[in-house]
Design brief:
Layout (H helix, E strand, L loop, with lengths): L4 H4 L6 E3 L3 H4 L5 H9 L1 H4 L5 E4 L2 E5 H15 L1
Antiparallel strand pairs: 1-3, 2-3
């Protein structure tokens, strides 16, 4: 399996509960993250959020893949 340079720069794959997101990353703030979750079906971030019971977890590496995908669409 080959790993691209882009993949090497991604954070490790961990699931972060929404309320603790800002313990690891300053952006987006919790309110902004909740906005992304609320609109996940239309904004391209659906794959970044996992649900376990009543909790929403952020797949850290997938979140940043979605951010990069959004950046490429805009450019």
């Amino acid at each position: 399996m080959t790993v691209t340079t882009e993949q090497q720069n991604l954070p490790t794959n961990r699931l972060i509960p929404v309320p603790q997101w800002n313990d690891y990353h300053p952006w987006p703030p919790i309110g902004g993250l909740r906005h992304l979750i609320f609109h996940e079906k239309t904004n391209g971030f659906k794959s970044a959020f996992k649900r376990v019971g009543g909790r929403v977890l952020v797949d850290e590496s997938e979140f940043f893949v979605c951010v990069e995908r959004q950046n490429k669409e805009v450019a």
